[in-house]
Amino acid sequence: MSNRITELFKIEYPIIQAGMIWNSGWRLASASSNSGILGLIGAGSMYPEVLREHIQKCKKATDKPFGVNVPMLYPNIQEIMDIIVDEGVKIVFTSAGNPKTWTSWLKERGVTVVHVVSSVKFALKAQEAGVDAVVAEGFEAGGHNGRDETTTLALIPMVKEHIQLPLIAAGGIASGKAMLATMVLGADGVQIGSRFVASQESSAHVAFKQMVVEAKEGDTQLTLKELAPVRLIKNEFFKQVQDLYKTTPTIEQLKELLGRARAKRGMFEGDLKEGELEIGQISGLIHDIKPVAKIVEDIIKEFEESKKRVSTL
Predict the structure, then answer these.
(1) Which residue in 17, 32, 73, 265 could disulfide with 96, CB within 3.0 to 4.6 Å?
(2) Stretch (H or E) spanning 74
(3) Which CATH architecture has domain 4-203?
């Protein structure tokens, strides 16, 4: 399967494993890359030296291309970027910030840069900044999300209409059918997060993985827009957030409730009551925990079968 995404990243299939905080360590990234897709290490939950360790272990575990996802709202950003370049990582996905800030600096050092956006406006800003590709992420996605709540079905063709860059669809994609659907809408490839949370190689706590598998339609909701929009499983912490909203809270009150390391507590340490549990709407269609290689195999098989089925319509 060859197109602009496989050629850009030198991979077999146009699929990117999302670089999610507390889920995407070196084991998940290397297993993904070894399966023919692009694996990403999620730098957002790592101190700089921890990131360096994960990059070094990933290099030993795979000889295939892999990258690092860097949310630009986190501290130590200069140190993180220096480590990425120093360790020879050639692919960086940036998010949660202005793409102009780091794109030129990275590209001058031989790094391929992709920026994650949630709107046409920011896709155009990313293209203007000189990125090599854009991830357009719809409202269905887990983790940090767009405030406009534009769904993937609407977002992909709108972004495609305005940019010339390779386009990667994200949000609500966990199957070959969804992959085909977004590519029909104009995407050159897909970024998949939630499905890889429920993989054997994910660094998420097994209790969180199991909760994802047990999730049903309606079990997640986008919230905390005043801080950074995030889709959460409805647990005790989520209920506390909703109760606080009834009092018309200030941003400071929301920050106080969120506190520090709430996401680590939930996704990495397995506190299913008081932790922040980020996952996409598609969790309602994830029913098992499997090795990454099997997940990729199933997605590609379903993609090819769906192409044949569509051709008969």
Answers:
(1) 73
(2) none
(3) Alpha-Beta Barrel (3.20)
The token pair at 214 is: 């047990």
Tens of pLDDT, residues 169-223: 999 999 999 999 999 999 999 999 999 999 999 999 999 999 999 999 999 999 9
Structure tokens at 269: 């340490």
b/e map of 255-292 (b: 16 or more CB within 10 Å)? eeebeeebbbbbbbebbbeebbbbbbbbbbbbeebbeb
- Cβ atoms of 92 and 106 within 8 Å: the answer is yes
**CB count in 10 Å sphere of residue 169:** 29
Which residues of the chain form CATH 3.20.20.70? Answer: 4-203
- Alpha carbons 243 and 17: distance in angstroms, whole number: 35
276 with 230: CB under 8 angstroms? yes
| Residue 41 β-bridge partners | 68
List the chain residues with pLDDT less than 50. Answer: none
**Contact 18/196 with Cβ under 8 angstroms?**
yes
Radius of gyration of the chain (CA): 18
Q: Give the pLDDT confidence of 8-21 residue by residue, as tens digits.
A: 999 999 999 999 99
Distance CA 231, CA 121 (A): 22
Helix (H, G, I), strand (E, B) or coil at 250: coil
Beta strands in 84-195 (DSSP E): 91-95, 112-117, 133-137, 143-144, 167-170, 189-192
User: What is the structure's pLDDT at 211?
Assistant: 98
| Distance between first and last Cα of the chain | 23
CB-based burial of residue 206 (10 Å sphere; 0-12 exposed, 13-18 middle, 19+ buried)?
exposed
* Residue 257, both tokens: 């409730």
